[in-house]
Amino acid sequence: MVRHFLRDDDLSPEEQTRVLDLADAMKKDRFAARPLAGPQAVAILFDKPTLRTQTSFTVGVAELGGHPMVVDARLAQVGVRESIADTARVLGRQVAAVVWRTYGQDRIEEMAAHAGVPVVNALTDDFHPCQVLADLQTIREQKGRLAGLRLTYLGDGANNMAHSYLLGGAVAGMHVRIGTPDAYQPHPGILDRAAAIARETGGSVAVLHDPRKALEGTDVVATDTWVSMGREDEADDRSAPFVPYAVTEDAMAHAAPDAIVLHCLPAYRGKEIAASVIDGPRSVVWDEAENRLHAQKALLTFLLDPSGGRRR
Ligand code: CP
To answer: Can you tell me the distance from the alpha carbon of 188 to that of 30, in angstroms, rounded to the nearest whole number?
Structure first.
């Protein structure tokens, strides 16, 4: 069966740990594993802007011995010039995997249904699972574990990062709190799914509207831009409700004294996060950005051979 990574709960708790262990090993020895030797190509498509994701997948595929083929989305016009299904069938005959940043989750599900090779979600409107995989690697590096830790995300509770923290954190057995205004609740179906996973893993999920309560004693503070990709024209309207949820020095006083700070970047200093926090001693955002490379290399290696060579 071809495995995909379309949302965070596509990895079981055991598989998530395996991928994170592999990511740590790959970070220590970047050029040891070459599962894409040939070189086999990986198609990498972006319907939205990117820096980190394009860089980390391009470098990562090359380091795995493969050929990163970044397809110009303006030329490919997936779903416009030809259907997603036909695009998937063509790519799947020639490449080892497909990495796609796009809009609706239904689009990447359609790609996965027809590609015949692993498809990786490089961000959709609903999820950013590769980012959260890198975040989990970063938290584990800093804290030595994931299960039982408290993670607080402040900002837009209905965006892809909030959804991925809920699912990915629940899979890891973490206590995930989303601090968000009442009008920006996570999708109820995703919240229910995260709660069900957390019941199995010993974690928990909660949505709180008081940012101070959401931060109380937390081990990890995470935030994201208040203006998601493609909604830049709404920036002024959207910012006001989130001001009380900014990660400032005052806000950090409510977290655990040794709490670390994550931001998936790009960051807007003075908006969702204070410059003194993101550039301060508790920030691990540059490790987090680097770990996109290691986590995604490990993920691709897992998806290309989920059995880890055991069936050979
Ligand atoms: N965090 C993240 O996905 O960065 P890019 O949008 O630059 O790829």
So the answer is: 40
pTM above 0.85, yes or no: yes
Kindly provide the residue ranges of all beta strands, DSSP E only, lying in 132-216, ordered along the sequence: 150-154, 175-179, 204-208
Residue 264 bears catalytic tag: yes
Show Cβ contacts of residue 169 under 8 Å, excluding neighbours closer than 6 positions.
132, 136, 151, 175, 176, 194, 203, 205
Euclidean distance between CA atoms 190 and 219, whole angstroms: 23
Rounded CA-CA distance 253/231 in Å is 32
Query: Is residue 128 among the annotated active site residues?
Result: yes
**What tens digit of pLDDT does each residue of 235-246 get?**
667 899 999 999
Ligand 1 pocket test target in 99, 123, 165 with most atoms within 8 Å of CB: 123
Structure tokens at 195: 């709660």
Taking alpha carbons only, the member of 282, 172, 182, 143 closest to residue 223 is 282
* pLDDT, tens digit (0-9, with 9 covering 90-100), for 175-202: 999 999 999 999 999 999 999 999 999 9
Task: Say if ligand 1 is within 6 A of residue 131 CB.
Answer: yes
